[in-house]
Amino acid sequence: MSNNFKADTLERVWLKVLRAVVSSGQLVKDENPFFEIQNLQLAYHNAFETFSPNYNEVFGKKFLDYIHRVYSPDGDPETGRNYYVAINDQIIQVVKKLKKEPLSRSATIILATVENPKQPCVTEINFSIRNNLLHMIVVFKSSDLAKKFIPDMIELSHVHEQISRSLEIARGEVTAHVISAQIYQEDRKTVLRAIQSAKLSNYFQTQSIIENWDKEAAKWDKNIRRPEYYVNIENGYSRFLDFLKKEIPDSDWNSDSIALDSGCGTGIIADELKKKGYRVVGIDISSEMLRFAHKDSVSTQYVLANSLDLPYNDTYFDVICSRGILISHVGKKYVDAFLDEHYRVLKPCGFFMFDFVTHFNAAEITKRRKKAYMSFKHMVQYLERHGFEMLKRSGTDTNRVNAVFCRKLVNNF
């Protein structure tokens, strides 16, 4: 049996490993017996996606709260464990190291030291920039996979996120090397219940999405000019461009305002934002789309990143446009994440424009199960719930695709 496990999300890879340890782990008859697999490696692509409904349902908040205290400034008062100081003291050095030497192999946070009488389960955390993404590797000397692995990785994801935003480089793959992966015998029935009750969405499969858009990249500019091409149903692409030209205000050329083209493809939306006087950042999950993007080193910067995990600090952009993300990329499960992440990076009173599907026709019935779609009325409610004020609409109830122009409310949350 291979000791290497991969999946798109933390929860998926966790469930795979639980199955492996329960079915194939060796029983170690310690004072508190446990099943063990040694030298196990787990990896997942969606660094932003750490929420685990199955973990929460089975184990509740007890261990999440305990591990959170361990990584918090005051530590856990009962055990005396505190990783916060050691980690935060080293984050600054990691950022400096990677800014100076982007290909460094020694940007590492060390938690295990000879002087420490209470050796942590997490011994080191390594960060590396490869292929324009910031990867994180976590080394565990041991891990209670059932109860503590998920909470540990959730807390460490915040460290990954902090360094990503400091460098303005998107998060890449997360890998965990576990020297001793354990499930206590007393937890076996609970683990089996977690495995059996798992109900997971399988729409946002990062690698397959990247492969699809990589194939589209070379002919994208040519294809979107074809009236019969799928993005031009109901003239959706050109309607969005007209909507942008009409509603997005021109920038004061001296203000240094920044706009984001989220899911930029080859940069067609970015070009329009540039014409309005903005400095533009275009992000896309496909490196091939960025390779064919319309380069302009003065006004436009292209970055490999996921629209659900933007490598920028809060309130960074004045304007955000996103065409096609809710239509083609993310499913129902991620609508909240899409709105929350763009709200986070948008300045107060900043403008946000995006399109979405209002309904599918009879031939597309299977897409309803996974893809995001909602009526305009429901979209307005979604926007209000996520801190946006709806300003203008492009399209009608009969149009399959609508677009909205909205503004971030001040002090909404």
UniProtKB/TrEMBL annotation:
One of its GO terms (molecular function) is S-adenosylmethionine-dependent methyltransferase activity. InterPro entries: Methyltransf_11, SAM-dependent_MTases_sf, Thymidate_synth/dCMP_Mease_dom, Thymidate_synth/dCMP_Mease_sf. It comes from the Bacteria. Keywords: Transferase. Pfam families: Methyltransf_11, Thymidylat_synt. It comes from Candidatus Kaiserbacteria bacterium RIFCSPLOWO2_01_FULL_52_12b. Residues 86-196 form the Thymidylate synthase/dCMP hydroxymethylase domain. Gene3D superfamilies: Thymidylate synthase/dCMP hydroxymethylase domain, Vaccinia Virus protein VP39. This is Methyltransferase type 11 domain-containing protein. SUPFAM superfamilies: S-adenosyl-L-methionine-dependent methyltransferases, Thymidylate synthase/dCMP hydroxymethylase.
